[in-house]
Amino acid sequence: METTQTQSNGVRDQTERIANIKQRIRYRHTNKIYIDLRQRGYNDDQGKIDIADLIQLDQWHYNGTEPIQMAIDKIGIGEGDKVLDVGSGIGGPARFLAHATKCDVTACELLPENHDIGVDLTNRSGMGNNVTHVCGDILTADLGEESFDSIMSIQVFFHVSNKAAVYKRCFDLLKPGGAIYIEDFYRMKDINREEREVLTEFLNSTDDMVTMTENKCLLEDAGFTVVEMKDFSTSYRQYTYNRWADWMNNPDKYVQLYGQDNYNGWLGQASTTKQLCHDFGVMAGGYFVARKA
């Protein structure tokens, strides 16, 4: 009876965690990828997808494939390497990484909707031999110990409250000599009341948005040696403005394509990030390269 109750509590805790994460990232509109594919002539639920077409549509972070190529270059990902993608979403970065380098990627994603779409797109694009999808929490998912040559994560860890635990888990999952590449959002300065309200709208908890210096300390506390870090404030400022302007200035186009609810959701997200990165300068992107001795 005690074991059954413990399992039940674990399932409930995971369900609540997923619900909280969904709220934090304003998670919805996963059907956008299928709408975009439909515009390229693909069916929603069957038929092969050309990986070259898919790569142009499934990079839902900033600046397309550039961050993944940066990870390849900075930590030296090559053919046959075992790579973990933490917070893999619908699998775009994992598929590009495997396609570009012929490495083997484990794509770990917490949210079941993202995971299911990722599996479908990976199978239909012929990438199933190189990309394995795992649905679960990075802290508890069965991924093996010290089994990865490299770890990559793009715009994920800013959602996580307990970064110390996640970084320690990543450290334990790496082989000796392995490296991690992280691109994420970071707080650039102290925030005033108006900025805090907008940041809370974006993240729910402003306390979880660390500075790059604070993040460096968290990585080092987990055992990593940070070998490179750089902020992308100029790039993120321009990207968020351009994305907002595109959605703001083309409502007829996007409402016709995605529907009013989709349009409102994507415009709301673009408006908030434009305020934080472009107008206020309170938030920007940056990357870290860190190694395990």
Furnish the topology, listing elements before pairings.
Elements: H1 2-24, H2 32-39, H3 51-55, H4 66-75, E1 82-86, H5 92-101, E2 104-109, H6 112-124, E3 131-135, E4 148-154, H7 163-173, E5 174-187, H8 193-203, H9 212-221, E6 225-231, H10 233-249, H11 251-258, H12 260-279, E7 283-291
Parallel strand pairs: 1-2, 1-4, 2-3, 4-5
Antiparallel strand pairs: 5-7, 6-7
Helix pairs in contact: 8-12, 10-12, 11-12
CATH superfamily: Vaccinia Virus protein VP39
Order of helices and strands: HHHHEHEHEEHEHHEHHHE
Tell me, rounded to a whole number, the average pLDDT. 90
The number of distinct structural domains comes to 1
Q: Please state the overall shape, judged from the principal axes of the Cα atoms.
A: globular
Provide the low-confidence segments as ranges. 2-7
Domain Methyltransferase type: 84-182
Keywords: Transferase
Protein name: Sterol 24-C-methyltransferase erg-4-like isoform X3
InterPro entries: Erg6_SMT_methyltransf (IPR050447), Methyltransf_11 (IPR013216), SAM-dependent_MTases_sf (IPR029063)
Summarize the structure.
This protein has 293 residues and is α/β, with parallel strands linked by helices. The chain has helices spanning 2-24, 32-39, 51-55, 66-75, 92-101, 112-124, 163-173, 193-203, 212-221, 233-249, 251-258, 260-279, and strands at residues 82-86, 104-109, 131-135, 148-154, 174-187, 225-231, 283-291. It is 50% helix and 18% strand.
